Amino acid sequence: MNIDSIQNGVVLDHIQAGKSMDIYKYLHLDELDCQVAIIKNARSEHMGRKDIIKIDYPLDLDLDVLGYIDSNITVNIIRDGKRVEKKHLELPHKLVNVIHCKNPRCITVSESQLDAIFLLSDPAKHTYRCAYCETAIDKKF
Amino acid sequence: MPRNLIDIVDLSVEEINELIATAEDIIANPAKYQDACAHKQLATLFFEPSTRTRLSFESAMLGLGGSVLGFSSASSSSTAKGETVGDTIHTVSCYADIIAMRHPKEGAPLAAAQVADVPIINAGDGGHNHPTQTLTDLLTIHREKGRLDNFTIGFCGDLKFGRTVHSLVNALSRYSNINFVLISPLELKLPRYVKEEALKKKGIPYTQTTDLESVIPQLDILYMTRVQKERFFNEEDYLRLKDSYVLTPEKLVNAKSDLSILHPLPRVNEISVAVDKDPRAAYWRQVKNGKFIRMALIMKLLGIEV
User: Fold this and answer.
1) Among A60, B70, B118, B171, who pairs with B44 as Cys (CB 3.0-4.6 Å)?
2) pLDDT of residue B231
3) Are A71 and A124 within one domain?
4) Are residue A39 and residue A53 in the same domain, yes or no?
5) Using the beta-carbon criterion (under 8 Å), do B128 and A134 form an inter-chain contact?
6) Total structural domains within chain A
7) Annotated catalytic, B201?
8) How many whole angstroms separate alpha carbon A56 and alpha carbon A8?
9) Distance, CA of A125 to CA of A122 (rounded, Å)
C-alpha cells in the first residue's frame, strides 16, 4: 500500500493498533483542510501491529494531550520531506482542560468557567486526580 | 502570593507543631495576644450553615483584637444571584485582610485561592477537607495525651463522607507509630484513595471493622463522627445508616481508663448525653481548643508574631 510522503507536517507513529480513530477525534483532526492519512494495523517490529497518522500540515500539537492519550506514541516533525525532530512523550504531570471532573459535588461541575485541572497521582496506574476535589478519573484510552 | 490553608498537608509537620505551641501559649497567656491583630479584618464567608466553625473563627479574631465581617448562608450573599465563588472572593478581598470560607462544593476554596490576594482558610468544602478541624483535633490530642505519636486511634461512624476523618488520617499519617482502627458500616468505609495515599503508600498499619465493641479496649483515642444527612442523595440510605453506632456508658465499660473521646460535633445520636459526664469525654474541651488553634493560624497566615 502506498501513501505519499508528506513535505511539511507531523507523523504520529507507534499508536496502539486500533486507537488511531480515537486520536483523530481527540485532536480534532477532522477540522483540518489538509491531507490526513490514517494507517491501521501497520506491521511493527516492536509492537506487532501499530497505527500511524500522517498530517500534511505543520500542526502545533498539544503534547500533553497526546502524552495523556498514549505516552508510547512518537511524534515526528517533517520539514521539506525530511524528519527534523523525533519526540518521545511522557505522561504529563498536569492536565489543564483536557479531561473534566465527573464528581457532582466538585466546584468545577457547577462553575464551568474554572480550568479543569488534573494532577498525575499514580504514574504506574496512569491515575489522575482532580486538583479541586481529588476525585480519580479513569484514563479514557 | 498569600499563604493559604486549603488542605492540612499544606502545612508541614514542623509548622503544625509550631501552631500547637503557639495555641498552648495563647491558652496560658491570653492577654499577651489580645491586640495581636488590631486593625485587621477577618471575613467569614459561610455558604453553608455552621455553628462552631464560624463562631470559633469570629471569637478567635475578636480574641486577637481584630474585627469580623461576613455572611452565614449562601442565600444572604450574591451567590443567590448566580455570582461565582471567584467573583465573591475578588470582592471580599477588597474589604478583608484574611478570609475563612465554608462551601458545599468540593474544591471551592482552591478556586477562591486562585483569585484571592489575601490568605484563604478552608473552613470546610463539602465532604472533602476541613483542615482547621484537623488542627483542633491535633491540639486536643496533644493536650489530652501530651504527644502526637505512639497511640492507637479508632475512627467510628461515617468514614466515607466525614471530611474531618480524611484530614485527620492524613495529618496523623505523618507522625510515628500510630495504629489506625477504622470502624464503619460497609457502605461508609474510608475511601480507597485516602487509604492508598495516607496509609498504604507509607506502610502504616490499619484495621477495618464494623464492630465498635470488639475493638474499644485497644483504643487510646476514639474519634466518633455523625452520619451526615446532607451528604446523602438518597434519604432511605441515610435513615438506614444514621444510628449504626451509638456510644453509651455501657459500651465504655471495657475501654481504657485514659481513653480520650473526640467528636467534631454537632452530634445527633451517636454519643449518648450520659457519656458527657465521663471524664474521658474530650469533645467539649475540643470545641474550646478550636478557638485557640484558629487564633494561632490567623496570626501565622497574616505573618504576625507576638
Assistant:
1) B70
2) 65
3) no
4) yes
5) yes
6) 2
7) no
8) 6
9) 6
Residues of B in contact with A96 (CB under 8 A): none
Domain of residue A116: give its range: 94-137
Subunit contact B106:A136, Cβ cutoff 8 A: no
CA nearest to A114 within chain B: B111
What is the average per-residue pLDDT within B277-292? 98
pLDDT in tens, A57-113: 998 888 888 898 888 999 999 999 899 999 999 999 999 998 999 999 999 999 999
Which CATH number characterizes residue A27's domain? 3.30.70.140
Q: Are residues A20 and A67 in the same domain?
A: yes
Residues A70 and A115 in one domain: no
Residue B6 pLDDT > 70? yes
Regarding whether A69 and A23 lie in a shared domain, the answer is yes
Domains along the sequence of chain B with CATH: 8-129+290-302 (3.40.50.1370), 132-286 (3.40.50.1370)
**A131 vs B126: CB contact, 8 Å cut-off?**
no
Whole-number pLDDT of residue A139: 67
Partners of B193 on chain A (C-beta within 8 Å) are: 129, 134, 136
- Min distance B201 CA to chain A CA atoms (Å): 11
Whether residues B193 and A133 touch (CB distance < 8 A) is answered with no
Terminus-to-terminus CA distance in chain B, angstroms?
23
Shortest Cα–Cα distance, B142 to chain A (Å): 29
Bridge partners, B46 (sequence order): B102
Q: Determine contact, residues B164/B137, Cβ cutoff 8 Å.
A: yes
Residues 6+ apart with CB under 8 A from A118: A94, A95, A98, A99, A101, A128, A129, A130, A131, A137
Check if B104 contacts A (Cβ < 8 Å): yes
Query: Is B84–A106 a contact, with Cβ atoms under 8 angstroms apart?
Result: no
pLDDT tens digits, B232-248: 668 887 777 777 899 99
pLDDT value of residue A1: 54
Residues on chain B touching A129 (C-beta within 8 angstroms): 193
State the nearest Cα–Cα gap between B137 and chain A, in angstroms: 22
Mean pLDDT, residues B116-137 taken together: 94
Q: Is residue A3 part of a domain?
A: no
Report how far apart, in Å, the C-alpha atoms of A120 and of each of A38, A96, A124, A130, A136 are.
30, 12, 10, 9, 10
C-alpha cell at B76: 444572604
| pLDDT of B235 | 80
Predicted confidence at residue B238, as pLDDT, reads 74
